[in-house]
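WARN  no MSA supplied for this record, continuing single-sequence
INFO  ligand: pyridoxal-5'-phosphate
INFO  echoing inputs
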Amino acid sequence: QRFPIALVSGSGCELTDADGRRYIDFLAGIAVCNLGHCHPAVTEAVARQAQTLVHVSNLYYTEPQTELASWLTDRCFADRVFFCNSGAEANEAAIKLARRYFHERGETGRHRIICMAKSFHGRTMATLSATGQDKIKKGFDPILQGFDFVPFDDIEALKAKVDGTVAAVMLEPAQGEGGVRVPSDGYLSQVRDLCDDTGALMILDEVQTGIGRAGRLFAHQRFGIEPDIMTLAKALANGLPMGAMLATEKAARAFGPGAHATTFGGGPLIAAAALATLRTLEAEDLAAEAERKGEYFRERLLTLSDRCPAILGVRGMGLLVGLELDDKGGPVVAACMAKGFLINCIQENILRFAPPLIITEAQIDALIDCLDGIFSSKEWKR
Ligand code: PLP
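INFO  complex generated
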């Protein structure tokens, strides 16, 4: 279901198509190009590394990979990182690590993973099995065993499922594909406590929320908790394919030599791109920018919703923003595109905005004016 445009170049928050039409990008490749398109620091790092060393094998250390692992572990709970090529691969590794962790301890029956309804963790067989949306699983039976689901943000439902047979609870700190759903205050720390009480591992999928988007480097840092395992991808290398699974030393030890591996994951070229991305993100304090501009964006959407009864709600965290409508959002996406704005619709009636973190207030204002025009039309009058 592709849109009928072909994009040929990008710079900052702007994209240009083959007919020379320009768009302000409020999607950033779905929460990927957090620094904007073709950021010079990343472009320069890729060009330099391409002339130095592109690929060896994970049989050896390379400087960019080691520096990247240190950069990440210096800034969060994790002691160890496994690099891969996508969010699905990072989650696949997390699921494998959780199961292996209990296997290594002799608790071979402890393999259940409790996941959330409406979650999204990827499209490999294990990650679609962990995904709480039937449409993602349809036609791929038999899916993997051992995954159970509870409603997101319902601690009592989770308590009823977590016992000594559960290896891990796996969730997004805020659901992205599921409709930009932010949990209530205290929910994530109750999940942490429950995992501590039962010995289950806590896996946080920060593929969409991580790398500054949620107003902190990692979304969980705003909730004052630490998982045992965290997964990243999307914005990690600002558009080049990279994933990562981060874990505490205690959990990571379950992956001994040969337990899990990758040919391309964390190669020098991609690691150099990720390092340039993260250093720029930190130097320019873009997580704080995401927090500030996300608040501005939601305030403007709330004001718009006062005038438009078709808007049922505004939600989000940092610059991951959702707008719930009382009808299908596809026509709004098409109308925005015709007016030069790229946005996206999920779960049929929720508009999702995930612009580069360098988006300006003026660009947000321009989108609001565009939405105002659309919601003032007779189709959206109630
Ligand atoms: N996890 C989350 C929370 C995601 O949003 C996505 C992709 O949208 C994935 C995992 C899968 O990532 P990838 O498409 O890189 O495999």
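Residues 86-88, 91, 120-122, 172, 176-177, 205, 207-208, 233 surround pyridoxal-5'-phosphate (CB under 6 Å).
INFO  checksum written, moving to next record
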